[in-house]
Structures are given as C-alpha cells and as structure tokens.
Amino acid sequence: MRRGLVVGNWKMHGSKASVAELVTGLKRLTSHADADLAVCPPYVFIPSVVDGLAATDITVGAQNVSDQAEGAFTGEVSAGMLAEFGCRYVIVGHSERRTLFADSDKLVAAKFVAAQQVGLTPILCVGESLAQREAGETLTLVEEQLLAVIDSAGIQALSKAVVAYEPIWAIGTGKTASPEQAQQVHAHIRQVVAKASSTVAAGLQILYGGSVKADNAAELFANQDIDGALVGGASLQIEDFAAIYNAAG
Ligand code: PGA
Predict the structure, then answer these.
(1) What local confidence, expressed as pLDDT, does residue 238 receive?
(2) Beta bridge partners of 122
(3) 189-216 pLDDT per residue, tens
(4) Can you give the residue range of the structural domain that contains 93?
(5) Are 226 and 35 in contact (CB under 8 A)?
(6) Closest by CA position to 170, among listed 220, 223, 205
(7) Is the pTM value of this prediction over 0.90?
(8) Ligand 1 in contact with 233 (CB < 6 A)?
(9) Residues designated catalytic
C-alpha cells in the first residue's frame, strides 16, 4: 500500500512574517498515519522552515536545484547544500521551470540525478499544455518526459523518487483536470514504469498537481493511481492546505 503525500509548492511567495505564520499553522496540524506532508519554500526561507518544523513529521523540499555539484555557477544552489540544510525533497522539471527558464528534458534528468546523489528525493513534474492535450499528445508527451529521466537515471532510481502529473493548463488557472482525466494519465505513467519494473511501478507515489483545492482533493485522491497532490496556491492558506492533507489521510 502506497502512502499518501501532499506537498506544498510555495513558488516565489512569502515574507518572513507570512512564512512564520504558515509554520505556526503547520505545527498545529495533526499528522495522519498513512499520509505525509511536505512544503517547498523559496530557498532563503528553507533554514527557518526546517527549524520551525523540526518537532513535527512535516518535511521540507526545494523548488529547484543545480545539476552541478559545485563551482562557478552564479545564482545556482547545489543538491549538497539543500541536503546540508535539512531538505528531504526537491522539485525538478516543474512546467514553470521548463517554459520560463528553458529547463530541457536533459537538464531535468541531470538535476534528478544530482538530487539523488546526495540522498534527496526528487519530485519529477511532467505534464502537457492545452494545445498538446487538444492535439491528443498528452500520453506520449508525458511518457517522453518520464523516459528522459529513466534513460539517464535507470528504472531503479524511480524507487527513490516521486512523480507529479501537472497539466500546464490546470496550474494556477482554477481549471482542475477531472478525476477521470488525471487517473488516465496517472495509470499511463504507472504502466510506462511497469514495463521496466512492476515492483518499482507498484511502489511509485504519483501526485496530481494543478488547482488542487480543499473541495476537489477527495475526488482526485479516490482514484487508485492518484497518491497525493502537489499544491501551489492552496498551500499558502493553512485551512485549505490542511483540508487537502486531511483528504489524503
Ligand atoms: P496550483 O499550482 O495548485 O496553484 O495550480 C500547482 C503547481 O504548480 O505545483
């Protein structure tokens, strides 16, 4: 039985004051025996969030990482640094990185490998644009994004990773994929992995992301291949985030 997982992606939001408030709210949540909770703040807030949540079961991740271990790479942050500061997860391949910062499949795979080399668990995001969905390319595109990582990291690497299906047209738009649309893609992701290893496929946590809210989380999580959520906007409101986590537990 796979554990549930709900991850908050704070994106480039927050101030010292709002982050302190969120941490206070997170500390009050009751943890579920069968579902985990994690948050991914902007880099600069990571140390205070890790400290603030130290006495809880809530873990912390980053939203991006360099593919390089160290060196003259102005503005970058390495996986080793994230691990040293107490991160458990790192998001790689978020569509905002792919589209706004040109993170290619190859670079995403390299970031995935760099994260695992220091023991971080990568959360690999895959997902199609509206045009790609309308052209009927969703399943092949998601498969390509997944295979780019499997080809360079190997299938066993997915036993220490999380995959998040995030249709670009649903991110921050209020348009959620229907539970049927999401389940179809999640099942496909699991099948692609199963072709290489049925054991890895059976254990893989696949999250859905894209306008997950308190009122649509339960119907998404009711599907057999949807193991949790990667939550943007609603993760900044503690009541909404708590309700999504409760739906997963
Ligand atoms: P959203 O973002 O929940 O605000 O749609 C999800 C994400 O981008 O991870």
Answers:
(1) 98
(2) 90
(3) 999 999 999 999 999 999 999 999 999 9
(4) 4-248
(5) no
(6) 220
(7) yes
(8) yes
(9) 94, 166
